[in-house]
Amino acid sequence: MARASSMFITCSTSRSRNALDQGSPDLLASRGPMTRRRVIAIAANEVILQGRFTPFSFGARRVWATVASSPAGREADVHFRESPSMDVDEWVDWVLSVEPDIVGFAAYVWSFSLFLRVAERVRALRPACTIVFGGPSARPQMFDLPQFRAHAGLLDALVLNEGEWTFAALAALPSLDTASLATVQGLALHARGAWYETAEPPKRALDDLPSPTQLGMIPAGRTAAIETYRGCPMSCSFCQWGKSDVPDRVFSAAYIAADFRALAALGTPNVHLADAGLNLNSRGFKSLAEAERETGFLRTRRLHAAVYPTQLKDEHLSFLASIERPQLDIGIQSFNPEALASAGRHFRESRFARMVETLRELAEVETELILGLPGDSPESFRVSFERALELGCRLRVFHCLVLPDALMVRDVEQNAIDFDPVTLMVRSCRGWTAKDLLRTREYVAEVARQRGGDVLSNLWTMPETHGADGQQARGDGPSAAFEIGAEMFERVRGIVGRATRGAWTVRSVRRERARVLLDVEVRGQPLAIEAAVSSVTAQAFRRVRGIAFSYSTRGGPPDAATLRELVAVTDPLVEPARDVLGAAERVKLTVVE
Ligand code: SF4
């Protein structure tokens, strides 16, 4: 990730703008009673990503398009600035130069403190200006943090959740005093030392939203955004979307097709699906597929999208096969069932690896893990990390963030989280001490460096591997398993012999990454036993003191005598398994009963 300090985009919209003058009749009909043209400024700080993926502040542009297309906006001068600049003076100069009556800042994790400092200066230099924060970090919870508590009264309002219509309603107020602001639905206001929220706005049809793409309000040559629905059906505790509404509103195929046509005319090289996932809303997907059938836009432009492998259906695979090879993100986050359950995230192990393989035939696949998830641990993170690397896809590891509406307010006591109030990065939490996090960060950074990936403050990337890791994951390369040494072999052989009164013979004992594999012979029949760390193993025959045991036979299921012996064998095998796995991971394994 890099910041391009010289890039910025500044635009204004006024009545003379042709694109807006072609708006719908109801937008054109109303002319407000204001005597002085109101000036509205919207500011967005963008993160420039290197390479082919170069998105921009699409959400802020949606707000800009909605305000500029509204009756009040058409009577106003609306200025928009998007820049990666982190220079407070530069932002203050721009705001003052347009002399706004209202300024709205798009607040994200990376831009919240920047815009707070800008707002402080604007408040001092232009006291009558109404200052509003919108975006994912515009939440009262942010002002409960010690660093920002003193700023709670600085802003006039926070725009909560979907900001387009709310900001347009605020911009249309004849007077911007506190009593008038309180009549706008969807705001948080600060009065007498506390925040309160105004009424929730009604949900409007998504097709009513003016499209910045169709109105010519997006930059050329960048990765554009397409939305097909809003919200997410899942509720992962670490994600702000986990609190969003049931995704029952979708954009129509006609709307998306019009966006595609506008993007084709603009020469857009690639698009990013701004939805929670390609396959999490069947009606949204239907609109997308229909728009693509009608325009063929994605046949020659790359689509970047998130997918959830265990929810993939044939229709998704056919769609992906029909467009230019897409780039798909798979958020694994963790393979640890306990950490996933604690985050409220569903995961079906049985389908996962197979679907990833299928997707790799059709797309560039990137996987994602979170380091420092509450309920995870250094040991189980390492196992997740190894397993993700084994998949052979490009892997991104993010340091866990404590976001508003997410971990900042959900399961707070249970998770015992301490976090940095500016970066929002977890410093310690349930399962992780501060030292654990530092050590694991160093470990991941070292692997990233060795593999030629990126090492950033809260993100590490490992390039795709076409070699050993990927081959092993697909079972078509040489095995990484190796014998555990004569002494350990004798120890295991003795344990198994005693526990089964000589009925079982151990043929081999190997360690393969985070598993110990035993091949035994039971009354002339082969039996394979696997011992792995319990906290990262979804299915098991038995779990004993942090070790999960499973078995497989050739032919039918084991008979009753073999099952009894399996139970008898697993108890005494726990210690050698822990010794082998602990030595392999160079960590002390946690005990999970
Ligand atoms: S992480 Fe993905 S699936 Fe979970 S709530 Fe967020 S968007 Fe939805």
UniProtKB/TrEMBL annotation:
Q: Alphabetically list the UniProt keywords.
A: Iron, Iron-sulfur, Metal-binding, S-adenosyl-L-methionine
The molecular function terms in GO held by this entry are: catalytic activity; cobalamin binding; iron-sulfur cluster binding; metal ion binding
InterPro entries from the UniProt entry: BchE-like, Cobalamin-bd, Elp3/MiaA/NifB-like_rSAM, rSAM, rSAM_horseshoe, rSAM_sf
Co-factor(s): [4Fe-4S] cluster
Domain B12-binding, chain residue ranges per copy: 35-181
Keyword Ion transport applies: no
The record's section on Pfam families has: Radical_SAM
Its source organism is Polyangium spumosum
List the SUPFAM superfamilies. Answer: Radical SAM enzymes
Q: Where is the Radical SAM core domain?
A: 218-435
From the Swiss-Prot or TrEMBL record, give the protein name. Answer: Radical SAM protein
A single GO CC term for this protein reads:
cytosol
